[in-house]
Amino acid sequence: MSVPLSRRVVAEAVGSAALVAVVVGSGIQATELTHDVGVQLLANSLATVFGLGVLIVLLGPVSGAHFNPVVTLAAWATGRRTGDGPAAREVAAYIPAQVAGAVAGAMLADAMFGKPLVQWSTHDRSAGHLWLGELVATAGLILLIFGLARTGQARYAPVAVASYIGAAYWFTSSTSFANPAVTIGRTFTDTFAGIAPASLGPFIAAQLVGAAVGLGLVVAVFGRPAPAPAAPAGLQAEPELAAPTLP
What we know:
Blueprint: H1 5-33, H2 37-63, H3 69-82, H4 88-112, H5 128-150, H6 157-171, H7 180-185, H8 200-222
Helix pairs in contact: 1-2, 1-4, 2-6, 3-4, 3-5, 3-8, 5-6, 5-8
């Protein structure tokens, strides 16, 4: 029996909130403990790796642990052919929950460290090379998630996805947001992990393009999935969500 949509939506909101709280909170903690930017980024990335892995293990069986609108949209796009993706109404419920959870997570992190609950970030990230970094980070994430699903290795998603995000912190110029909901949430905090609202639009555009590139790479590497067989007359299969994801 599938998990009711209401519980899946709650899991997506809680997971997104916890993920952003980890990203923002560890960034604040790191800057309070050291002035070395390299050490700050190392602490931030390690906390994100461990936190994300735990969240995928915990909430993956409930909602698929998307925590990311581009993953939800990619699951919907691929599921139209295979018949195992989320329905449009589920996408419409997941994405607002992810965004709301991300905003709440940023506010929670600020509250835990005695910061203003809402303080728009002044960390400008408006540059072409950063947008390219976001495109690469998101494309790689989508290729990884759906490649694991296509090869029957989705059980490795908690370790693989968390490890990829940890690596992408360091090999991409943007430090791998790769998630529109997380990006929106991080505008609400003027701390180490923040992003200025003016930088938001191009970042999200790059993430959406990266998701499309990632899906193209999935097809190029693994081929197109076989279409779902037609259900017998009188039977209506309930759609399930795709395998776990990320940030």
